[in-house]
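Re: [ENG-882] Designed sequences occasionally contain unexpected residues at chain ends

Forwarding the minimal case from QA. Structure tokens:
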């Protein structure tokens, strides 16, 4: 471990790291998932609960993941293993989550990329056909596969170049571009007549709509959107220079991620209400409702639509790069592979999973695993169980199996950095978060329809524990 520390590649600059970590957090979770989940859960009240989860749980876990990563200078599996062999499985769960999320995420990334081109080639010309066009496209056999594979190849090219050369360089350009693009879409949207109803929907809470399911949805969304609970921020933290300030960095990543989610809401809901559409459109919200909104904008519509889907693709790319990196850094650190081989191997496996997910929207829709198709299998297992359990394991590990002094030194840069909230953070991580997540996970499994799938997920975690010594 010592030698590893000396040789480990670091982020080129603090800005580069921040952009990469923010890029990982900001993705389809913010722009594709956040608006439709907000829509399904009644708007403003959901957003308030989501913000509470982000501040009370997400921020503390992000600090913990950065600290564990930098302390060990190792990616998910090695980080746990180097501290305590029995905990290897918790890191392995993270790597498995990375593979599973990458089993469906690039499919949506591919749709997004496709919509950049579709926006330019007449998608908006027939507003009434937009919804059926999406169903036909997503359910087709070859076309979405081609886009998913192009999307995957872009990931591979960037990740194969390594940390500062590839991911950092790309993020530095792509993330600021995303902010600018969203601002343009928001300005267009809130200037439409009738947009104020959408603003009220976003900012005036209706508590009567809140149920236990709302809280669950909010907690799950906060993990997914901040890239927590699966070793991603451990891995990014492992490349972090010793002089960087972990609490400040984590706070800016969380703040920027939250800002983009709210911006995505502002980009979509005012316009949606202005056109009298339903906020409950579900996962198709971005791909069906948004182009329909743009189609009503006359000549500028296609340009705004191209811009919007370019932004979505950018956001998705910087996230999936980080997911791929979790798998790649595991193979490099633990299996001693070189970066290129590790990247090609991981991406190859992920591509096969994505092909199954993409086809499960159409020709393979009849094939069910535990009652769901391939796409939902990968999505639900990670989003509804692996990330939450992964986050709970991390807090238990940090709170109960690492030395408090070591953590304090790591987070305060050996005492040179004042962090008055260390005690508060430590107690939240040690006592509060594990209990809250356990309660929410149990309630979640009880509330969810796909119980056999959830039990399968738990079985996978147990099996990882049993075989962890081989990892
Ligand atoms: N946070 C990313 C998003 O919002 C998804 C992600 C999850 C990335 C977990 C890395 C790890 O799209």
């Amino acid at each position: 471990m010592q030698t590893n520390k000396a040789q480990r590649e670091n982020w080129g600059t603090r800005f580069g790291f921040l952009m990469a970590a923010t890029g990982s957090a900001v993705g389809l979770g913010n722009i594709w998932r956040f608006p439709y989940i907000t829509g399904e859960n009644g708007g403003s009240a959901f957003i308030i609960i989501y913000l509470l989860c982000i501040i009370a749980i997400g921020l503390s876990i992000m600090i913990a993941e950065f600290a564990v990563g930098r302390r060990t200078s190792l990616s998910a599996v090695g980080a746990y293993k180097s501290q305590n062999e029995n905990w290897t499985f918790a890191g392995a769960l993270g790597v498995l989550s990375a593979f599973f999320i990458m089993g469906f995420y690039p499919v949506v990334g591919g749709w997004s990329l496709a919509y950049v081109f579709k926006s330019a080639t007449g998608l908006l010309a027939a507003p009434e056909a937009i919804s059926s066009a999406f169903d036909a496209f997503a359910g087709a056999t070859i076309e979405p596969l081609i886009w998913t594979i192009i999307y995957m190849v872009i990931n591979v090219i960037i990740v194969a170049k390594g940390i500062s050369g590839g991911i950092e360089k790309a993020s530095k350009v792509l993330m600021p571009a995303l902010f600018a693009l969203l601002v343009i879409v928001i300005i267009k949207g809130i200037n439409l007549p009738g947009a104020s109803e959408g603003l009220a929907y976003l900012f005036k809470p209706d508590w009567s709509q809140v149920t236990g399911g709302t809280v669950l949805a909010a907690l799950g969304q906060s993990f997914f959107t901040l890239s927590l609970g699966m070793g991603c921020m451990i891995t990014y933290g492992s490349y972090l220079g010793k002089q960087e300030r972990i609490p400040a960095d984590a706070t800016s990543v969380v703040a920027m991620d939250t800002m983009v989610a709210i911006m995505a809401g502002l980009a979509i809901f005012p316009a949606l209400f202005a056109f009298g559409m339903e906020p409950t459109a579900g996962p198709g919200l971005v791909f069906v409702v948004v182009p329909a909104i743009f189609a009503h904008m006359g000549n500028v519509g296609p340009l705004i639509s191209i811009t919007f889907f370019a932004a979505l693709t950018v956001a998705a790319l910087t996230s999936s790069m980080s997911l791929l990196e979790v798998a790649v850094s595991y193979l490099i650190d633990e299996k001693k592979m070189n970066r290129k081989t590790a990247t090609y191997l991981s991406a190859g496996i992920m591509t096969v999973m994505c092909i199954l997910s993409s086809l499960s929207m159409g020709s393979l829709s009849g094939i069910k695993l535990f009652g769901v198709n391939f796409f939902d299998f990968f999505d639900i297992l990670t989003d509804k169980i692996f990330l939450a359990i992964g986050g709970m394991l991390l807090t238990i590990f940090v709170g109960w199996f690492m030395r408090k002094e070591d953590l304090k030194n790591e987070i305060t840069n050996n005492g040179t950095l004042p962090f008055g909230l260390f005690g508060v953070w430590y107690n939240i991580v040690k006592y509060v978060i594990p209990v809250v997540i356990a309660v929410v996970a149990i309630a979640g499994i009880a509330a969810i329809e796909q119980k056999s799938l959830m039990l399968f997920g738990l079985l996978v975690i147990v099996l990882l524990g049993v075989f962890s010594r081989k990892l």
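QA comment: On inspection the terminal residues look reasonable. The pocket of phenylalanine is lined by residues 24-25, 27-30, 101, 224-225, 227, 230, 232, 319, 322-323 (CB under 6 Å). Proposing we downgrade this to a documentation issue.
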